[in-house]
Structures are given as C-alpha cells and as structure tokens.
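Dear support,

I submitted the protein below through the web form. The confirmation email said the job was done, but the results page showed an empty box. After a refresh the structure appeared. I'm attaching both so you can tell me whether what I see now is the final result or a partial one.
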Amino acid sequence: MARTRLSPDERRTQLLALGAQLFSAMPYDDVHIERVAELAGVSRGLLYHYFPTKRAFFAELVRAGSEQMLDETAPDPGQPPIEQLRRGVDAYLVHCGANPHTSRAVQRGAASADPEVQALIADATGRHEERILATLCDGEPAPELLRLAVRAWIVLLRTACQEWLDRPELPRDQVLDVCVDAFVGMMLGLPHGVRPRLADELLTDHLA
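What the results page shows now:
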C-alpha cells in the first residue's frame, strides 16, 4: 500500500481506527498489531513510535473510544430529565452505530483481564454513573442501592447496544424505547427512601 503523509494526530487516529477493526473482529490474543502497520502502509517502527506495545495500543483504543462516548452523550441540563435520558441513550446508540468497530473493541475490553484496561472501563462507567446520579439526586449523596441500579442499567444499555449492532434490522427507536423504559421502570421499582425524587416526574413525562 502506498504511504500517505499525515500529521501525527491524523496518523494516530488512522492507526486506532484500523486497530479497532482488528480487535472487534477477533480475540485480543489473536491480534498482531504489526498488521495495523501493514494496513496503514507504514513501517512497524512508526507504529511502535506511537504505541510501544500491543497492550498500550489496546488501552489507548479503549481510552479514546470511552472519551469520545462521554463527550457525545453529555446531557443538556436545560432539558427536562426524561428528555436528557432519551437524548443521552439515542446519542449512545448513534455513536455505536457510527463507530461499530471501536464500540465492539471497547466492549471486549470490558471482559479483558488486563488491569489497565479494566481501570479505563471502570473510570468511564463511573463518570457515566456520576453524571446520571447528579441529575437524579440534584447533587445530594446517592443511596447505595440507587447507585447499584444505575450501574446495572449502564451494563444493560451496553448489552442492548451490542445486540443491536449484531441485529441491524431492529429499528433504533425501538431499542431506544426499551432502554428508556428499563431505566424508568428500574427507578420506580426502588423502595421509598431510595427512589430518587425525579422518578415520578420521569414516569409522568415519559407517558405524556
């Protein structure tokens, strides 16, 4: 493949995109990052200049994908809570649909035994969690059971998204509805004293 001159940032982005294709298609141990250099038409030395090891390459892929997801799903505090929820879920699905390779690679990272990758996934999950809890609790400390419920819903959302990527015949708006319904139902199922004050408002607005 003929080499194309790119800026360092462009080259880094290209390498990560190619790596995402490989890591999303096969298990971690079966991926040889030298193949990324071949696909990009660059030397192995240049690849290792950006990413000295496969572990570092995969960790950066997970980190970059997680950061992009957080940016694209940031809520608008000016919107009603149910609209923030719907827009956030839809933005998540749109992002995964537009970046299926990276999304699958990050999902594989969640099952990785690598402590660095696990820490990156846990950090991204925690930031999503805190963002949701800040809205639900209006800045007040969150009960542990509520925190558990939100964390479990994030796992549900990720799983539903991956299933949707594997079944593109499913309409995105229906997958969106399933995830939103699951969140509202989970909040309403919490016992009094744990249920967030916004739960009833979420249900009322959702049914409106």
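Response: this is the final, complete result; the empty box was a page-load delay. The mean pLDDT is 86.
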